[in-house]
Amino acid sequence: MRVLSVLLVWLAFLLSCGLAVPSENPLVRIPTEILAYSLPLLLIWFLVRGRGFWRSIRVERKNLGRSLYLSLALLVVFFLIIQAASVATLHFMGKSEEEAKREMENYMENQTPSWYPRYLLLGSFFPVAFCEEAVFRGYVLGTLAPFGLATSVLASSFLHLSLHIWYLKVGGIAPLLFVQALLLFVWFGLVSYWSGNIVGTILMHGLVNFLSVLRGFSEAAAGAIQVALICLGAICLFDLLLSYMRVRFKRRVYREMQSQLELNLGRLRRMREGLKKMLAEIKKRYRRGEMGREDFLRLEAVYKRRIEEVERVLNLQRGPTKSARA
Prior knowledge:
83% of the residues lie in helices and 0% in strands. The chain is elongated, with a radius of gyration of 33 Å. The two termini are 37 Å apart. The protein folds into two domains: 160 residues, no CATH class; 74 residues. The protein has 326 residues and is an all-alpha fold.
């Protein structure tokens, strides 16, 4: 049932893309694009009615900060991965970065109206980023999450990638665009899976699209924003690594303490058994008449007191162990 609902929403999105009219008139094109992006969300609302629409697309206050934090931290990691993958793909295609940039610019000039890039400066966030993330990193990934990280992230990423079949129209740089998009979707998917919230991925998705459009107006402004985001992401990544190292250190110290505690408990148990054996031996000697009553009572009191002290220490040691395990 989960897979069927996911495929139904994906198919609805795929078909609704045909409703967007590629008109030169913004009063026709913009409303039809918003309608095309919104219809899959209406289907999701119908499918999850009674279970919470916003929860189903992972737009909540819960874990919002974690979503933003992970989005920024992973930004640095995936920026480097995407750069390396782009260089490798361009080398494989035998193209330079400048050639790829020119092909994309030519496509935008020939296939879109002159006003369209200005619209995309805002449209990058809504409807594009919001609706795509709500469907694929929200509903699709959330529905497939019980199947595990790899399945949910990769399935949602490839289903989303299938909506970008229009990359084939761009020309020879289509493989580059597919590789970059897939890596972006994996980045967003990991954030959604680990945080349970897509607010951070909506923001990052919108910013990625926004910066790609802004470069056509001002390379310097786009570069400055990108550098600021990378610096902020580097701070978050450094903090994340420190947090991970702290957790690892605490776990190692805890394991060492547990090991030492078990060792001490073993020694105390052996001491208790030794004292009990000595007490039993004293009783035997007293019954055989090898020890006077006064000496027996004195030694019996001493050994019983020692056994009680060891028992008390053992009980004190067991308490922290049980609470730690709980």
